[in-house]
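FORM 7B: Structural annotation worksheet

SECTION A. Query
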Amino acid sequence: MHFIDSVYGGQSKLADEVEDFALLRSDSGVPDDRSSSLGWYGMPTYHLASCVDDADLRITHIIRGQDHLTNTFKHLLIFEALGVPAPQFAHLPLLVAPDGAKLSKRKHGPVVSVTTYCDAGFLPSAFINFLCLLGWSPKNDREVLTLDELTELFSLEGVNRANAVINFSDEAPFDAKAVHLNAEHIRALGVDDLAKLLKPFLSRRG
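SECTION B. Predicted structure
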């Protein structure tokens, strides 16, 4: 089995190396009319449900986290069984903590919450700029980019393969690059626009 990933390039695996995997979860409940008429019981697993949805919606490109790269071989088998062409796959690097652990809401709490950055005064444009540069580069050493510039310059070919580290600690809860980019975006604002954005923060301070 072989496919070309838009980020990680050619991926190959022998069919015998793809482990058996479930398509339906066993269901001890009473089957509904639809399941009994089809002669099976249980709910579809992620693998089956996502592929059927993609086929039904005629999805052409699937962009998801690098941790799903190995699942692609299973999904290729399902697409083949469904008799539909497989979409183009692109797997993105993961966002990880300084210790290399995958960022998660359960473990890292406010660090992964967008509202944390909003409440701290990060501009949406700066936050998007920061997130884009975590796993992608415009290849021209530019860092401060508007949304229009990011849209124009972005390509899957520019996505990095290595996982991106967000640096934070108890003493410095925000990544230094995020703080730097936010400062640059604030400096680019006109006085009137800056005043409007500052007003809620000043009101909360009385």
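SECTION C. Observations
The mean pLDDT is 89. The chain is about 40% helix and 15% strand.

SECTION D. Sign-off
Analyst initials: ____
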